[in-house]
């Protein structure tokens, strides 16, 4: 068992200094570089500050007074409340945990990345498992994974060595492009965002990989000017689609594959403002099947993602991990389905 003394000897400071840093004691100042060394030692040595937290790590607790029945949910609070994709997933998680007498605790990325709050969040609050939507640093994932079970649910975690509940983003877009090709389209563009920090690198995003693979499979060249990186911002989708149309109105793609319904809806508005007919002049296809897509004009074709089911399965899986029924980082891929509506239903001749 790692003690405060071990951390103090590892860093070369007093036990009281280690204690002050870990407990966020503000009565005496500790140099930032010393604090950083102490937190690094905490992670390296695997220090757990109390017996309750040790019970979580060894997974020996039973459903009794030692259980907190708390699961953490790490997501952007604004997205979780206002974005239909995340809100539906959240509902699946919440409903399933409620049915099993668990409590869902909202945790922000900042709370995990703030060294003064990390141990409080993971241990003092009694969180028994963690569901990740927001992207957090790999070193932080490793530290948390050493202490409590966790599951990743969004594209940030596709390649991580943790339990994952997701759908095949690459295959979904490949299916969309293949459908458009069968409709007679050859000039197909793409609207989306990157998967990395700042969302700037499209090549790292699986929906874009699916688009490239399907275009290559069909033998069609990708026109760089028809590829729009919105960085997942609706206004960017609207403005950049306008720019694409203005740049060469006589040479436009006949279809745009959009990595989310929000990106498609914004781009469709730009097309209509320039008197382009949808789908006669340009077809649009989104991803997510949010409710709003049924009420656009024309109605938006999309990929239906089982958002509520993803949340439900994530909740069931994290409960089984917390209770010791699952010990491996399993990866569950849910099916998707194309929803064909007016925005892409006209064959090219």
UniProtKB/TrEMBL annotation:
Keywords: DNA-binding, Transcription, Transcription regulation
Organism: Cytobacillus citreus
Gene Ontology molecular function: any one: DNA binding
PANTHER family associated with the record: HTH-TYPE TRANSCRIPTIONAL REGULATOR GALS (PTHR30146:SF109), LACI-RELATED TRANSCRIPTIONAL REPRESSOR (PTHR30146)
Residues annotated as domain HTH lacI-type: 2-58
Classification via InterPro entries: HTH_LacI (IPR000843), LacI/GalR-like_sensor (IPR046335), Lambda_DNA-bd_dom_sf (IPR010982), Peripla_BP_I (IPR028082)
Name of the protein in question: LacI family DNA-binding transcriptional regulator
Highest taxon of source: Bacteria
């Amino acid at each position: 068992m790692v003690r405060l003394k071990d951390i103090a000897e590892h860093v070369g400071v007093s036990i009281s200094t280690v204690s002050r840093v870990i407990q966020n004691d503000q009565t005496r100042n500790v140099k930032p570089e010393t604090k950083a060394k102490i937190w690094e030692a905490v992670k390296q040595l695997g220090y757990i500050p109390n017996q309750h937290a040790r019970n979580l790590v060894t997974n020996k607790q039973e459903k009794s007074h030692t259980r907190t029945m708390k699961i953490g949910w790490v997501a952007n609070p604004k997205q979780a409340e206002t974005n239909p994709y995340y809100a539906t997933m959240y509902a699946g998680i919440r409903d399933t945990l409620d049915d099993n007498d668990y409590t869902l605790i909202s945790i922000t990325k900042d709370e995990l990345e703030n060294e003064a709050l990390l141990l409080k969040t993971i241990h003092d609050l009694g969180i028994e498992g963690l569901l990740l939507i927001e992207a957090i640093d790999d070193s932080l994932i490793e530290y948390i994974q050493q202490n409590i079970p966790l599951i990743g649910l969004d594209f940030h975690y596709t390649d991580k060595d943790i339990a994952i509940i997701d759908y095949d983003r690459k295959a979904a877009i490949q299916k969309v492009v293949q459908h458009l090709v069968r409709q007679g389209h050859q000039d197909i563009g793409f609207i989306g965002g990157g998967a990395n920090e700042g969302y700037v690198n499209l090549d790292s995003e699986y929906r874009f990989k699916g688009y490239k693979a399907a275009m290559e499979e069909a033998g069609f060249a990708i026109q760089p000017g028809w590829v729009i990186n919105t960085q997942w911002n609706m206004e960017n989708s609207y403005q950049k689609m306008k720019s694409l149309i203005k740049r060469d109105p006589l040479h436009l793609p006949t279809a745009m594959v959009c990595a989310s319904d929000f990106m498609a809806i914004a781009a469709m508005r730009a097309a209509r403002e320039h008197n382009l007919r949808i789908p006669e002049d340009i077809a649009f296809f989104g991803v997510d099947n949010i409710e709003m897509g049924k009420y656009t004009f024309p109605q938006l074709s999309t990929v239906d993602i089982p958002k509520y089911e993803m949340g439900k399965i994530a909740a069931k899986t994290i409960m089984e991990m917390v209770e010791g029924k699952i010990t491996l980082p399993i990866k569950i891929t849910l099916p998707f389905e194309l929803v064909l509506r007016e925005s892409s239903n006209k064959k090219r001749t």
